[in-house]
Design a protein that fits this description.
Elements lengths: L3 H5 L6 E11 L9 E7 L19 E4 H10 L4 E5 L9 H10 L3 E6 L13 E6 L23 E6 L2 H13 L8 E5 L6 H11 L4 E2 L3 H5 L8
Parallel strand pairs: 2-4, 4-5, 5-6, 6-7, 7-8, 8-9
Antiparallel strand pairs: 1-2, 1-3
Helix pairs in contact: 2-3
């Protein structure tokens, strides 16, 4: 690993602030259950009420893109997710994903939906969040992102109440989100019963998929580096 002084001298597109890098099973998305390397970047521009990654808001270790790519690749797992926090806050997230693709990895990006995904390399599997009212960040949804959504991407909405569900259903129908890519509804842990959410989806014949956070079933909900 390069010294901190050397890393800080690098231009922004060559350095990252990293909270953690680890191997686990993918707990969310249409890739659920896959072995996956998680590259978790530090910092977020949102403060969702139900956030389970607040530990990423501050701190982290400055590292070069080369160093991060080397560590992620060395773990020997095909799928790598770049996550946060909000990874797109850091300019070097784009070259990071490009480098991982060059090495033959399947690359996932978990992003809040508040920043543009226009520059994300085309092969990357974007998991684009939409924030409903109970998140406290509904005004931060960047709807222009929908023009950059591709069929191999997916849209995720975390539902914390019946009101959130009704908001999500309205967006799915009015904006025809299911015609763009798979749409996942995820119950906010401890706030919405997954069985109840599944009933709402079935009753409305909503073109969406129920997502349960597998990692919170397999391990303690607050566990790190599962």
């Amino acid at each position: 690993m390069q010294g901190l002084t050397d890393v800080r001298r690098l231009p922004p597109e060559q350095r990252l602030r990293i909270t953690e890098i680890y191997a686990s099973l993918q707990g969310e998305s249409t890739h659920v259950g896959k072995p996956c390397v998680f590259v978790r970047l530090t910092g977020c521009n949102l403060r969702c009420t139900w956030c389970d990654s607040a530990f990423t808001f501050q701190g982290g270790t400055p590292r070069s893109v080369d160093d991060v790519v080397q560590q992620a690749h060395a773990l020997g797992i095909h799928t790598v997710e770049v996550t946060g926090g909000e990874p797109l806050l850091q300019p070097a997230a784009i070259p990071l994903m490009a480098r991982l693709l060059e090495l033959g990895h399947e690359v996932l990006l978990e992003t809040s939906g508040s920043l543009t995904i226009e520059a994300v390399p085309q092969p990357v599997h974007v998991i684009l969040d939409l924030k409903p009212p109970d998140s406290g960040e509904v005004a931060r949804n960047l709807w222009d992102n929908l023009q950059w959504v591709r069929p191999h991407h997916e849209i995720k909405i975390v539902v914390a109440s019946r009101g959130d569900y009704e908001w999500a259903a309205q967006q799915i129908r009015q904006r025809e989100l299911a015609s763009l890519c798979p749409v996942l509804l995820s119950p906010a842990f401890g706030l919405v019963d997954p069985a109840e959410l599944s009933t709402w989806i079935l009753e409305d014949r909503l073109p969406a998929r129920l997502q349960i956070q597998l990692h919170k079933v397999l391990w303690e909900p607050d566990a790190r580096e599962r």
